[in-house]
Amino acid sequence: MHAETHSPNLAAPHVAAAQNQKEVTINDATDALDLAMTASLSVDCSAGGSVSVTAQQARRNVRLMLTGTPAADVSLVLPTVPRLLLIRNTTSRQVSVKNATGATAALAPGSESVFYSSGSGVTVAGLSTAPAAQVYDFGMLTFPTPGASETLEKVIIPRAMILPANLTGSVGHVDANPADAFTIDLTRNGFSVGTITISPAGAFSFATPGGAFAVLAAGDVVRFVAPSVADSAIAGISMTIAGSLA
């Protein structure tokens, strides 16, 4: 759109010199401002991956509601229109909010935040808020001494949930301590989402890759897998993994 006929960012129409029926253009411009300040748009993210918002959608809505049940994390690509937007992530996946180039901002599952999109990068402009977490824990128990690379427990996740960074809040107990550090791999569909290490003194330490949280989707298969080298001393392992509903 040409700058002389429309406003530079919201593309609200300008009244031309000696224009007839000025009220039509003024009403259109007022409607554009009204929508830009109050309207909300539902953005379907079911496909996962890259999801684009058009310039017109960004100009005529102040709030974006991200919906759907994507199987992978989402990249929300905003247009090259300077805009302050409130974005809510109702999915169970991490969302990266970005322009085609420049800085990227993160939006966790179930959270809402204000972002400033400059057209060449996105930054957080307001504090992110999330609903109070609903506790959702699961655990494992095995009494015999595990074999090398043995699956100690398998859990099918019935609903989307979040594992906190470094599995904070998780607890464990062992009846007979290992001779050496004993590290159990926590996997989701065959890929590691955390580790649980039991020291020779029986102390448990929990970690996640990069110290980040992880999101589990309904139907994910979680396994507790023993290390590749057996330890004949350890026995009676139990633990509870702390989490929350997504």
Topology readout:
Blueprint lengths: L21 H17 L1 E5 L4 E4 L2 H5 L3 E5 L6 E4 L5 E7 L5 E4 L6 E3 L4 E6 L4 E3 L13 E5 L8 E6 L4 E3 L7 E6 L5 E7 L2 E8 L5 E4 L6 E3 L4 E5 L9 E7 L2 E2 L1
Parallel strand pairs: 1-3, 2-4, 3-5, 4-6
Antiparallel strand pairs: 5-8, 6-7, 8-9, 10-19, 11-18, 12-17, 12-20, 13-19, 14-15, 14-18, 15-16
In a few lines, what is going on in this structure?
With 246 residues, this protein is mainly beta. The protein contains two helices and 20 strands.
Tell me about this structure.
There is one protein chain. The protein has 246 residues and is mainly beta. It folds into two domains: 39-124, Jelly Rolls (Sandwich); 138-245, Jelly Rolls. Helix content is 9%, strand content 39%. A hairpin with a 6-residue loop joins β6 and β7 (105-107). The chain is rod-shaped, with a radius of gyration of 25 Å.
Spatial extent as radius of gyration: 25 Å
Structural class: mainly beta
* Helix and strand pattern: HEEHEEEEEEEEEEEEEEEEEE
Q: What proportion strand?
A: 35-45%
Uncertain ranges: none
Share of helix, binned: under 10%
Shape: rod-shaped
How many helices? 2
| Structure summary, number of beta strands | 20
Order of strands, widest sheet = 1-3-5-8-9
Distance between the termini: 41 Å
CATH topology of the largest domain, anyone? Jelly Rolls
**Structural domain count:** 2
Sheet bearing the most strands, described?
Answer: 5 strands, mixed
The pLDDT mean sits at: 91
CATH architecture title of the largest domain: Sandwich
* CATH class value of the largest domain: Mainly Beta
